[in-house]
Automatic annotation (TrEMBL):
This is Type I-F CRISPR-associated endoribonuclease Cas6/Csy4. Pfam families: Cas_Csy4. Gene3D superfamilies: CRISPR-associated endoribonuclease Cas6/Csy4 (3.30.70.2540). InterPro entries: CRISPR-assoc_prot_Csy4, CRISPR-Cas6/Csy4_sf. It comes from the Bacteria.
Length: 186
């Protein structure tokens, strides 16, 4: 249950945009969140503000997990980039949100499709035009930039916010996101 939370507020940096600070926070969080086995959910209370995720990240879990995560964040130097709150109890009678990852297809997806269809003898430039048009028509979602620890490649993780009428218990991924589990919104 997500009975408690901690809050990370981005500290303005001279050489980094607020969205970059949040991306840095999420990069560090991703080192710790998988160890909680899906019990920690992430929320962005200022989602969509200026087409960004906003400058606040809330982490929801039970009290023990929040305390453990807070200690890990304080020890890793994150306080140079974000103010880390105390562990607080989640208010009652809140709204609920579901934050999920959006997989956007880029130019590499077009290249892979082209290679596959050429080997099958079915490629046509009209297919490329259609795929590029579909990419342009895809809605914009706030996102952050990450670097894969395993491959070293940089990628964009886009986040979709969905308002939910009631809480839904579930498991969160290594970024604190879920396709169906909700977190409180206040």
């Amino acid at each position: 249950m997500t009975t408690h939370y901690i809050e990370l507020k981005a500290i303005p940096q001279m050489d980094m945009l607020q969205s970059e600070v949040i991306g840095h926070c999420m990069q560090i969080l991703h080192q710790f969140l998988p160890h909680f086995e899906g019990r920690v959910g992430v929320a962005f209370p200022a989602y969509g503000l200026g087409r960004t995720l906003g400058g606040i990240v809330r982490l929801f879990a039970n009290q023990q997990d929040c305390q453990q995560l807070q200690q890990q964040l304080l020890q890793c130097g994150l306080q140079d980039y974000a103010l880390i709150s105390e562990v607080n109890q989640t208010p009652f009678h809140t709204e609920h949100r579901c934050y999920s990852r959006v997989h956007r297809k880029g130019q590499s997806a077009i290249r892979r499709t082209e290679k596959r269809l050429k080997s099958q003898g079915r490629w046509d430039e009209a297919i490329r035009a259609e795929m590029q048009q579909r990419q342009q028509d895809t809605a914009f979602f706030p996102h952050f930039h990450l670097k894969s620890a395993s491959t070293g490649q940089r990628f964009i993780l886009a986040v979709k916010e969905k308002r939910m009428s009631q809480a839904c218990v579930g498991v969160f991924n290594g970024y604190g996101l879920s396709n169906n589990a909700t977190v409180p919104h206040f």
